[in-house]
Amino acid sequence: MRRITLSEFAAEKGQVTAARLIGMRQSSLSKALSVGRAVYVTEHDDGTFTAEEVRPFPSQQSKTEAA
């Protein structure tokens, strides 16, 4: 099992192939890369891939920030 950033994965596989392997469109992958989302791709032992985004907890703004 191996875990890498989305940008490394896209560089290795190419954006079109990378997007297909994790079940998304190339345009969505491109946007995620351009805004710098913290997405990690895991290659499993059976050759499948999953992706997950790391986000701060809690992901909502505090009431003092929203005001």
Characteristic key phrases:
67 residues, alpha+beta, CRO Repressor, 3-stranded antiparallel β-sheet
Describe the fold and architecture:
This protein is an alpha+beta fold. It has a single domain (2-58), classed as CRO Repressor, CATH 3.30.240. Helices cover 42% and strands 21% of the residues. The protein has helices spanning 6-13, 15-21, 26-34, 63-66; strands at 2-5, 39-43, 49-53. It has a 3-stranded antiparallel sheet with strand order 1-2-3. The longest helix is centred in the middle third of the chain and has 9 residues, at 26-34. The model has no long low-confidence stretch (mean pLDDT 91).
Task: Describe the structure concisely.
By secondary structure, the protein is α+β, with helices and mostly antiparallel strands. The chain has four helices and three strands, in the order βαααββα. Strand 2 (39-43) and strand 3 (49-53) form a beta hairpin.
Count of spatially separate domains: 1
Cα-to-Cα separation, first versus last residue: 44 Å
Spatial strand order of the main sheet? 1-2-3
Largest sheet: 3 strands, antiparallel
Question: Which band does the percent of strand residues land in?
Answer: 15-25%
Cα radius of gyration in angstroms: 14 Å
Shape: globular
Mean pLDDT: 91
CATH class: Alpha Beta
CATH topology tier name: CRO Repressor
* Strand count: 3
Reading the helices and strands in chain order gives: EHHHEEH
Number of helices: 4
By CATH, the architecture is named: 2-Layer Sandwich
Uncertain segments: none
